[in-house]
Design brief:
Length: 845
């Protein structure tokens, strides 16, 4: 029977051998004519070092192209912005090359340290394989150093190019602002002629485009308008559902609160402007995507949408802040006439700026001469300057009696002068030829001022809402209270979060708008945001805000997972297994600290913080920290010992120094002991490790309890002992093994002293059992006529000698008839002789 498996295996092996030989021969036969082709196969895959060298060469070519592009586009700000973005991407790619080579360089360095230096003269030679490995590693290290050096030089060159581009853009911006143009009558005549010619060309272009769209692009036009309207309506309807009470003023409110006025002013301006912006942006996007706009018409439509958005934003801002028709909702102390006049002035300046921008875009699209742009900006600057001067002579301030319909007062001291100086400065700047500077200042006065004022209102709203007990009066707080059943404290904390959210909205919307108005491009903002969230350098330390946020989220996730694991183990595993409470506490504490440690490691690693950067500081402070934190470290180590060794656990009855009570909590620094008077005592763990600690419930809760009993000399001792044992036997909590017993301790000075001793399964029941037994003993002794004696003392007082305390056990008659005493005369007899019997043994006279 055993031969059959052996024969089968032998036949199988022979079959495989024959098949292998057949396939080997066939493969050799098939490959033999193709030997020349096999010799021409492609080389092996490049190593990471070769790939890094090729990427460096490619980056050098890209850098050369960027340098040439910067020279050719020195006068084009948009092109310089694109080149700066590409240069920044190239810089990060070069840095990535060096970072990718660092692990291999560290491996080579560690391996060379393990191999050691080559043998010196006179030392035995080393193995050839070791020498070859050292030489290969040394050559590879040299190559890595060369590639890394090229990468560093290339990174320096890219950084230099970025600085040059920034300097070009700064110079271009300054030249544009401070470029001077001669203003004369001939210039004005040329501008009028150019304007007539531009208007004629633009009218023809617009009519031809409109007829073309109506004939061939009618459906895409309606589709674009429908999609853009749908997007805006969705945003506006959602905003009304969420912030409906903050978008419109309630006419039924006679005296609205300051927080209500601020909230409506901020949210109505922000949300409605955003809704219109979405409508305009999506309209332009869909019109351009559906090929409805021609290249010469697209910039004009974009400028028209921007002008509409600017005028609408300023109008919403004026209505929100000044409330010309609703003085009770006004945020500034202006009269009705003053609010209307200032609002009209601001709106007029916004319209002038918007028209100037629109006409400038039309001129660029039509190829108008520069003189027309200069004169157009000159007219806009003169109009805005005149509006500011006219507004400075007004009386917009609220009257002293507080009546908004009454005639107002002049501007506060200095405000009118500032308006006149700014208006006159704009006019003089424009008339002297610095039209670009005047136009820029006029634009910033309107748009930047409105944005800054809106941001300020938003910050004020956040500040007011964040104040204690202010958020509870809002509609949103009432909704949270009804929906989530939140209490006053939770609502107050929610108000703090809402205030911080309003801060974030105001800053995140306002700051980018201001930067865009002051000459920054969208690419600049994207680059700033990318660097801010990915790499912030503080000296030699690189910090990534995105990495820090990721690390915080990972830390919070692992921490919450640890808490869940603690609760699951305690409630589902250890509770079902009837594990001791102290063991459960030790396991929960250990898992908690382990989870926090793992979460901290994961969070720090995800944040990308290189702890080696702090090695020098840590080494310098290690000695001082060691001395300063030695007690903390001692308590920490002692806490770990207590958790592992468990000389006592949660729920034990311990005695340590002056502290006695139940252990409530054991942490790595201190242990909480609750006394029987419900006082919590925090004991450092090092004291519990180094000192004496008594544990009444170390291995179990069994303990002996005693009740001392004293009876008079007239009582029968055996009867007393029988009664005590009989009463003890009736208590269910008293253990039968070991059995209770009574000790006849002594013959006292005025009583027979006994002690009832019994064991309890739980020491915590001792107080109740002893109280009940004492009551039963007292009642039984009264029924049996057994007397519990009181302490007795004799007190004798003499006039010439201090009182002598005579023990109760001495013979009083013998004391009086002591032959050694001196006979007393009649006037020297004792004044008083007292016998005092008290329950506590104290003497009373």
């Amino acid at each position: 029977m055993r031969l059959r498996p052996i024969l089968l295996r032998t036949i199988l092996l022979l079959t495989l051998a024959v098949a292998g030989a057949h396939f080997k021969g066939a493969a050799a036969f098939a490959q033999e004519p193709q030997a020349p082709a096999a010799a021409q196969e492609a080389p092996l895959t490049d190593t990471p070092l070769d790939q890094a060298a090729k990427e460096i060469e490619k980056a050098k070519v890209q850098l050369t192209a960027l340098q040439d592009g910067a020279k050719q586009n020195a006068d084009n700000d948009d092109a310089l912005v694109g080149l700066a973005t590409k240069a920044d991407e190239l810089s990060r790619a070069v840095i990535t090359i060096s970072v990718n080579l660092r692990p291999r360089f560290d491996q080579i360095k560690n391996r060379l340290a393990e191999i050691g230096d080559p043998p010196k003269d006179g030392q035995p030679p080393e193995a050839k394989i070791v020498t070859d490995e050292r030489n290969a590693l040394t050559a590879e290290r040299a190559q890595i150093n060369a590639v890394t050096g090229d990468a560093e030089n290339l990174s320096i060159a890219v950084t230099k190019l970025l600085n040059e581009i920034i300097e070009m853009r700064r110079r271009l911006f300054a030249d544009t602002l401070f470029r001077r143009t001669e203003i004369s009558v001939s210039v004005l005549d040329d501008a009028v002629s150019a304007f007539v010619h531009e208007a004629s060309e633009f009218s023809q272009a617009l009519s031809s485009w409109a007829s073309f769209v109506w004939k061939f692009k009618r459906f895409p036009l309606f589709a674009a308008i429908f999609l853009s309207l749908a997007s805006a309506l969705i945003l506006l309807s959602g905003s009304y559902r969420l912030f409906g009470s903050y978008l419109r003023r309630d006419e039924a409110i006679e005296n609205p609160s300051y927080i209500g006025r601020l909230s409506i002013a901020f949210w109505s301006t922000l949300i409605r402007t955003l809704a219109l912006s979405v409508l305009l942006v999506t309209s332009f996007f869909f019109l351009n995507s559906f090929n409805v706009l021609r290249p010469d018409i697209a910039p004009v439509i974009g400028a028209l949408f921007a002008a509409i958005g600017l005028v609408y934003f300023v109008g919403r801002f004026v209505n929100a802040i000044f409330a010309p028709d609703e003085p009770r909702w006004r945020l500034v102390r202006l009269s009705n006439l003053g609010a209307r006049s200032i609002g009209y002035c601001l709106l007029a300046m916004a319209i002038v700026n918007a028209l100037d921008y629109l006409f400038g875009t039309i001129g660029e699209a039509m190829g108008s001469p520069l003189v027309l742009t200069v004169v157009r900006s000159l007219i806009a600057a003169l109009i805005i300057g005149l509006i500011l001067i006219a507004a400075s002579f007004g009386k917009p301030m609220l009257a002293k009696n507080g009546d908004p319909d009454a005639p107002g007062r002049h501007w506060p001291r200095g405000m009118g002068i500032i308006l006149r100086v700014v208006g006159a400065g704009l006019i003089l700047t424009a008339l002297t030829g610095y039209v670009g500077l005047a136009r820029f200042v006029a634009t910033q006065l309107i748009i930047t001022g409105a944005v800054v004022a809106t941001m300020y209102v938003g910050l004020l709203s956040g500040k007011v809402i964040s104040k204690q007990e202010s958020f509870g009066d809002t509609f949103f707080a009432s909704f949270l209270t009804r929906r989530f059943k939140l209490g006053p404290v939770a609502i107050d904390q929610a108000g703090l979060l809402v205030g911080l959210a309003i801060y974030a909205v105001a800053l995140l919307v306002g700051i980018p708008l201001i930067l865009l108005l002051w000459g920054f491009h969208v690419q600049d903002l994207q680059l700033i945001a990318y660097r801010l969230f990915t790499e912030v350098r503080l000296g030699g330390i690189s910090i990534s805000l995105l990495g820090i946020c990721t690390g915080i989220l990972l830390f919070a996730g692992v921490y919450l997972l640890t808490r869940w694991l603690q609760r699951w183990l305690d409630g589902n595993v250890m509770a079902r297994s009837h594990v001791d409470l102290g063991v459960r506490n030790s396991v929960k504490t250990g898992i908690g600290y382990l989870g926090v440690g793992i979460a901290a490691i994961i969070g720090v690693s995800a944040a990308g913080i290189d702890l080696s950067s702090f090695a020098l500081v840590a080494s310098a402070l290690s000695v001082g920290i060691g001395f300063g934190l030695q007690n903390i470290v001692s308590n920490f180590v002692s806490g770990l010992i207590l958790l592992v060794e468990r000389p006592f656990k949660v729920g034990d009855h311990v005695v340590s120094g002056t502290a006695e009570g139940i252990v409530k909590r054991i942490s790595v620094r201190a242990t909480e002991i609750e006394t029987f008077r419900k006082q919590s005592i925090i004991v450092p763990n090092s004291e519990l490790i180094n000192g004496l600690v008594g544990n009444w419930t170390h291995r179990n809760k069994i303990g002996r309890s005693e009740i001392p009993v004293s009876v008079s000399y007239n009582a029968d001792p055996q009867k007393v002992m029988d009664i005590l044992l009989e009463l003890t036997a009736k208590i269910p909590l008293v253990m039968r093994n070991p059995e209770p017993h009574v000790e006849f301790l002594r013959f006292g000075p005025y009583s027979l002293d006994f002690e009832l001793r019994f064991f309890l399964a739980d020491m915590g029941d001792g107080m109740t059992v002893r109280n009940n037994l004492r009551i039963e003993i007292l009642q039984r002794f009264k029924a049996e006529g057994i007397e519990i004696p009181l302490p007795q003392s004799d007190l004798t007082i003499h006039r010439e000698a201090p009182p002598v305390l005579v023990d109760a056990g001495r013979d009083r008659k013998g004391d009086q008839e002591n032959p050694g005493d001196k006979p007393m005369e009649e006037e020297e007899r004792p004044v008083r002789q007292l016998r005092s019997r008290t329950a506590d043994g104290n003497l009373k006279s």
